[in-house]
Write a structure and sequence with these properties.
One of its GO terms (molecular function) is RNA polymerase II cis-regulatory region sequence-specific DNA binding. The chain has five helices and two strands; from the N terminus they run H-E-E-H-H-H-H. It is mainly alpha-helical. The chain has a two-stranded antiparallel ribbon.
C-alpha cells in the first residue's frame, strides 16, 4: 500500500527537520549512487547545510573526482537540462510529454478500483471478470492462476 503525499513546505520543528534532512540526504546519495551504476553516468550531489546558530557544513557524493565533475560542469557548452524549485513546486506549468503524461506514474484512470468489500453473500459468475482478478492482484489478494481457474471452473455449468 502506498504512502500518503506530504505537503512540501519548510519543517518548523528543529528535531523533525534534522531527522528528515538526514534520512532524505542518505536517500538522495543512495539514488545518486544507483543512477551512476545502473546508467554508467558520472553523478555529483552537493549539499550546503546552513542553519542559524550552527556551523556551516558541506555534504557531497560523487561517483568520480568532484573537482573533475565540477570542472566539466563549468566548461560544458552543450545542451543542458536545468531544473529549479519552480519545476517541482506545482507553480510552474506542468511539463507534458508526447503522450500527454506529466510524470512516469500511472494515471488515475489506469488505477484499479478499490478491492471489493467482504460480505457474507456468495460470489456469482456475474461478479467475476478479468478486471476482478486484476484488482485482486493489484491489492495483493490474488496470488496465483490456480485460484482464478478454480473460481472460473466452479461457475461453468
Amino acid at each position: 500500500m502506498g504512502r500518503r503525499k506530504i505537503e512540501i513546505q519548510p519543517i518548523t520543528h528543529e528535531r523533525n527537520r534534522s531527522v528528515t534532512f538526514l534520512k532524505r540526504k542518505n536517500g538522495l546519495f543512495k539514488k545518486a549512487y544507483e543512477l551512476g551504476v545502473l546508467c554508467s553516468v558520472d553523478v555529483a550531489v552537493i549539499i550546503f547545510e546552513e542553519r542559524p546558530g550552527h556551523h556551516h557544513k558541506l555534504y557531497q557524493y560523487c561517483s568520480t573526482d568532484i573537482r573533475d565533475i565540477v570542472g566539466r560542469h563549468v566548461q560544458y557548452d552543450g545542451e543542458r537540462d536545468s531544473r529549479g524549485p519552480a519545476d517541482f513546486s506545482g507553480a510552474a506549468a506542468k511539463n507534458v510529454d508526447a503522450e500527454g503524461d506529466d510524470d512516469d506514474e500511472a494515471d488515475e484512470e489506469e488505477v484499479p478500483p478499490p478491492p471489493p468489500k467482504r460480505t457474507k453473500s456468495k460470489i456469482s459468475k456475474d461478479d467475476v471478470s478479468v478486471d476482478f482478478f486484476h484488482t485482486l492482484d493489484f491489492y495483493g489478494l490474488y496470488t496465483g492462476r490456480l485460484a482464478m481457474e478454480k473460481l472460473c471452473l466452479g461457475f461453468r455449468s
